[in-house]
Every structure is written in structure tokens, then in C-alpha cells.
Amino acid sequence: MSTTDIDQRFYTPMEVSAHNSPNDCWVSFHFKVFDITKLIKEHQGPLVEPILKAAGTDITHWFQPLLGKDDAVKVKTHLDPVTSLEEPYCPMGPFVHIPPREPTVDWDNSFGLPWWQDDKRYYVGELSRKTRTIRIKNVLTGQEDSMEVPSEETVGEIEKRYLELNWHAASYTWKVLKPYGGEWVFTPLDMEMTLSENGVPDEEYDFEVLSINSDYYHPVVHLYYNDDLSVK
């Protein structure tokens, strides 16, 4: 099962980077993830080369900063040193839907929205603003797996990711060790809330400042098997 097989709201940079070929081309910008494979297939030639070179990466630096959440994404511009006219700034080379520098009758502008504004056709989800690594321990088998997940995801969404490692993930109760009444107790997680909302803080930055080994700040989620007859 891959990330494209499940319904996701958020993607990690690592997941985006896996889509880096002409037949499977994703990019991210301004925390949006676009699948532009169709665009690549529809436009052959030099105008797709800059995009292919950037496949699987973040290209926010191609565009102007957003002034508000409803602001349209626009390509960076600069003043041409020869003509003193404002034109798109494309040091990587002009790409699909960038108008030519000189007026020409050969340029087809009937595409409507440029691809970087066409959410309806290319948008697949959000790029996580902060990922975190967690360890998931199956108490029944003793198996432990490490996963990088978006901090914005609920535990239920993380459970869907874990299906790739355990098809019966829904047959377990997810718990973490938390203080309660003066002692530490394994407490079930609310599957509709994020880890932070469940009282599992992301302490990565604090531990990095203290130069403590990363293994110490990866929280462990314990999976307790439910004998619910769901496994057939």
C-alpha cells in the first residue's frame, strides 16, 4: 500500500520526493502538493525540462510570497535589464504556461488558469509544516516500527498509514504512557485528535537544543490487541 492508495490530507517532504519521474511527477509550493503528471504528458519539449528537474521537490522559491491565504500564487518577476519591462523571473529556464519574452502568435494561452493556480486539476493535499518521528510498538508481537508523520494528522490518520506495516492496525487500541494520579499509566489515545492534542508533545526542538540523542525524543505508541474477531 502506498501513500496514493489512502485518502490523505497531509504529505511529508519525503513522500513528495518519491514522485520524481515523468510518469509520476509531484511538486510542492506554499505548502500545497500538486500532482502534475498530466501536465508533463500534455506538454513535451524544453518547457517541461525545468519542472522535471525539480520533480519531487519544493519549488516555493519560483513564486512570489503570499500576502494572505486567498492570495493567488504568482511567478516571481523582475525588470529586464535591456527593456526595463517587468517579466517572469525564471533562472531555471521558462516552463509551461510562462508567456514568451517577445510577442508571438505561436503562444497558445487558451489553457485558462496556469497550472500553479489550478487547484481543481492538480492539488492532492497539503505539505506538512512540521513532521515528527514516532515509534509504534506492537505489545502482542514485540515488533517496533519507526514512522515519520505529519504533526497535523490525527491518530486515526496515522493508523491508516500504519496499515502499510500491519493490515490489522484497526484491531488494536493505541495507548501512550502518561502521568495520572501520581503514577504512569498506559492511556488510550483519542483517534480523532492529533498526538499533541492527546498530550503527546513534540519535544524534538528542545532535545536538539540540549544536544540529546534523537532516539530519546521519539514518543512510543503502544498497540494493544483487541480480541474483537475482526481478523478473519
Automatic annotation (TrEMBL):
Gene3D superfamilies: Cytochrome b5-like heme/steroid binding domain (3.10.120.10). Residues 8-128 form the Cytochrome b5 heme-binding domain. The keyword Metal-binding applies. GO terms for molecular function: metal ion binding. GO terms for cellular component: axoneme. InterPro entries: Cyt_B5-like_heme/steroid-bd (IPR001199), Cyt_B5-like_heme/steroid_sf (IPR036400), Cytochrome_b5_domain (IPR052320). Transmembrane segments: none annotated. It is found in: Cytoplasm, Cytoskeleton, Cilium axoneme. Keywords: Cell projection, Cytoplasm, Cytoskeleton, Heme, Iron, Metal-binding. The keyword Ion transport does not apply. Pfam families: Cyt-b5. PROSITE patterns: CYTOCHROME_B5_2. Coiled coil: none annotated. Radial spoke stalk protein that binds heme under oxidizing conditions. Required for the coordinated beating of multiple cilia maybe by functioning in a redox signaling pathway. This is Cytochrome b5 domain-containing protein 1. It comes from Pycnococcus provasolii.
